[in-house]
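Re: magnesium ion structure - here you go.
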Amino acid sequence: MRIGFGYDVHRLVAGRALVLGGVNIPYEMGLLGHSDADVLVHAVMDALLGALALGDIGKHFPDTDEKYRGISSILLLAEINKLLADRGFRVNNIDATIVAEKPKLAPFILEMQENISHCLKVEKDLVNVKATTTEGLGFAGNGQGIACYAVCTVFKVTSHQ
Ligand code: MG
C-alpha cells in the first residue's frame, strides 16, 4: 500500500465555466487555467502521481502544451490511471476536500464522486469528496479562488499488500 497527497489552487474569474470533479456547476464565475481548471481532479491526479513517486501533473501535462488547452481534466485523470495500471497498481481509496466559500457544492458532490470513481474504474464508495468554507478567511474565503486537498492510497494488484 502506498499513500499520495495532492493540493491545487485556481483563481476564480468571470467568463469561465466552473468545473469541479467533471461537473459543470452553475455559478457567475469559473476557474482560470490552461485546461478546464478542475481543481478537484488536479489535486486527485497529484495525489495519485505522488503515491507512485511519478512527479506532478505539470510534468505529465505541461501547461505550455497546446493540446491540453481547455481539455477536460477527467480525460487527464484517465491517463494517470493508465500509468498506475501499467505499473500494476490500483486505487484503494481517495478522499478530497474542496475549499470554497461559494457556491454551495453539496448538491453536486455525489456526481463528482461518481465521475471520479467511474474514470478510475473503481467502486463508488472508494471515492469521497467533501467541501468546506474558510468562514470568509483568506483567498478562498474572499472568493479569489478555490483550493482542493486530496489523499489517496493505492495498492499493487499483483502482490500481497
Ligand atoms: Mg491545477
